[in-house]
Design a protein that fits this description.
Blueprint (H helix, E strand, L loop, with lengths): L11 H6 L7 E2 L2 E2 L1 E2 L10 H13 L10 H21 L7 E4 L2 H16 L5 E5 L8 H10 L2 E5 L9 H7 L4 E7 L11 H10 L3 E5 L11 H4 L3 E5 L10 E5 L1 H6 L10 E4 L4 E3 L13 H17 L1 H20 L4 E4 L8 E6 L4 H9 L3 E2 L1 E3 L4 H7 L4 E5 L6 H20 L1
Parallel strand pairs: 3-15, 5-6, 5-7, 7-8, 8-9
Antiparallel strand pairs: 1-2, 4-10, 9-10, 11-12, 13-14, 14-17, 16-17
This protein binds pyridoxal-5'-phosphate (PLP).
């Protein structure tokens, strides 16, 4: 991947030129977009790649022999190679295209769960999980009469490692945790989690929804068995994601869905299946969005993971200090290691009201339980206001947020 000119490296003003959507007024104010954990904005090159595909070489892939089909197939498969490189996977066939992290987890729960989880087995998840890393495992456990075990957290929002180690047993078949929490930002010690799980012969799935755009991922170094990513949280299009799985495991797993592409031969008596990765990619995929996803990964790689991380960590520290010092505000989630997510509550004010009043000033944040209801039940709150950072956010935007919050709080506390 070619490096961007040094001058563009995390020069927020230049980076922002890639994102036309940021340059607009919302409710009369310049947009301040702080909802990146829900979805990031898309740089011009991603939108252009999507337009190019539909304007110049829209065709179905793999099966065609005509020029457009060959071009589309080549571009589609190029994204797979870019993704392999991006997460440092050993083999390109370990990259399965899915709709996003939700589908990636459902695929593993359904396919791996169906074949390798049995009565009396245990599945371990953490208290920090998104609903998409809870519900599929509840289904598997219910169906297979297995037990779902939950790793507890401390009051800072960190996994209790001693408790985790105690939970592991010879019955543990699978451990599924997020790399970073979408609600609190906690960065989990996944290498350690994987090492302890493997010592018990359990396979490990990592939900990387909140890390793909923010830090380097090396699936061989962390030695996970499965890793899940959503393109739309990585400056890419919606409706595309990646399931990485170790080849030896994927080969032993049955297909997830039946249909075209995933077969080698079909007769009315018997069907044999295609090789990896196609065994798991039944039907016509989301071709245009997969093609455009490549440009999002290249964008991240060109900026450089270290640059991205130091920019977002600096902003997080700045925002934590400023927001945390406001009267009536309590920060929720004080893990030592975090990604750029800051959750907070304001005494006696519903997060939704804060979110609406910030929107009136052009500031986009998320409010509520962020699809982590069990986490908030553990913390004893209904939800938070959440800001989440990306490469295009600036200190000036945090200042606008803090100023708006100060005014809102003054107004609410006086009325
Ligand atoms: C930690 C985490 N896991 C899973 C998901 C689900 O991702 P998607 O909706 O892209 O499938 C999200 C989305 O917010 C998330 O933050």
């Amino acid at each position: 991947m070619n490096a961007l000119p040094a001058v563009l490296t995390l020069n927020s003003a230049l980076i922002r030129e890639e994102f036309a959507v940021l340059n607009q007024k919302i409710n009369g104010h310049s947009l301040v977009y702080l909802d990146n954990a829900a979805t990031t904005q898309k740089p011009k090159r991603v939108i252009q790649a999507l337009t190019d595909y539909y304007e110049r070489y829209n065709a179905n892939i793999h099966r065609g022999i005509h020029t457009l089909a060959e071009k589309a197939t080549l571009a589609f498969e190029q994204t797979r190679e870019t993704a392999r490189d991006f997460i440092h996977a050993a083999h390109v066939e370990e990259i399965i295209f899915v709709r996003g992290v939700t589908e990636a987890i459902n695929l593993v729960a359904s396919s791996y769960g169906e074949s390798f989880i049995a009565e009396g087995d245990e599945v371990v998840i953490s208290c920090l999980e998104h609903h998409s890393n809870i519900v599929p495992w509840q289904w598997v456990c219910e169906k297979k009469k297995a037990t779902l075990k939950i790793i507890p957290i401390n009051d800072r929002g960190e996994i209790e490692m001693d408790e985790f180690i105690r939970l592991l047993s010879s019955h543990t078949k699978l451990v599924a945790v997020n790399h970073a929490s979408n609600s609190l930002g906690t960065l989990n010690p996944i290498k350690e989690i994987i090492r302890h799980s493997h010592a018990r012969r359990a396979v490990v799935l990592i939900d990387g929804a909140q890390t793909g755009a923010h830090m380097e991922i090396d699936v061989q170094d962390i030695d996970c068995d499965f890793y899940c990513l959503s393109a739309h949280k990585m400056y890419g299009p919606t409706g595309v994601g990646i399931l990485y799985g170790k080849k030896a495991l994927l080969e032993r797993m049955p297909p997830y869905q039946g249909g075209g592409e995933m077969i080698r031969e079909v007769t009315f008596n018997k069907t044999s299946y295609n090789d990896l990765p196609y065994k798991f990619e039944a039907g016509t995929p989301n071709i245009g969005d997969v093609i455009a996803f490549r440009y999002a990964m290249e964008f991240i790689a060109e900026l450089g993971h270290e640059n991205i991380s130091s920019h977002e960590q600096e902003l997080l520290a700045y925002a934590s200090a400023k927001v945390g010092s406001l009267p009536f505000v309590t920060l929720i989630g004080k893990a030592k290691e975090k990604v750029g997510v800051l959750s907070f509550i304001v005494d006696d004010v519903h997060p939704f009201d804060i979110g609406q009043m910030l929107d009136a000033r052009g500031i986009a944040v998320r409010t509520g339980h962020h699809c982590t209801q069990p986490l908030f039940a553990r913390l004893g709150i209904n939800g938070t206001v959440r800001i989440s950072l990306a490469v295009y956010n600036t200190e000036a935007e945090i200042d606008l947020l803090v100023d708006a919050l100060r005014r809102i709080i003054n107004f609410l506390k006086q009325s």
